Task: structure prediction
Amino acid sequence: MKAKAIVTSVALCFVAVALCFAADGFIGTWKLNEAKSTLISGTPKNITVVYAAMGDTIKVTIDGTDAAGKPAHSEWTGKFDGKDYPVTGDSSSDARSVKKVDDHTLAFTVKKGDKVLTTGRIVLSADGKTRTVTTEGSDSAGKKLTATAVYDKQ
Result:
């Protein structure tokens, strides 16, 4: 009986470790691959994105340029549970929510107050070496905008 309990415990540990690694595919530093991306000129550009595990939350640090081409830095700490968490350093938004769709896909929403500015998906490649971010939003005139940014894991 004792051997069965040990085997069961070890098996559960392996399952837990596998689930942790599957969820951590996004953890690390990601660099924008402009050649593979379809970006909209005159909009902010995220050049480096870092995902770091902080206990039961994820901290996302973004460095890039704003719409005018000036350096920009923002940070978001939250969970991939679809709830709004505050963002700092970004004057155009004040909250982001991220929801895990599956081990390779996240859905996100960017808000200013109660207004949704941008929605999108982040898809991690099967080999974990690239992530593709597809965003949808509207400009000030209401024209729909779509962009795709491809990032390479560093």
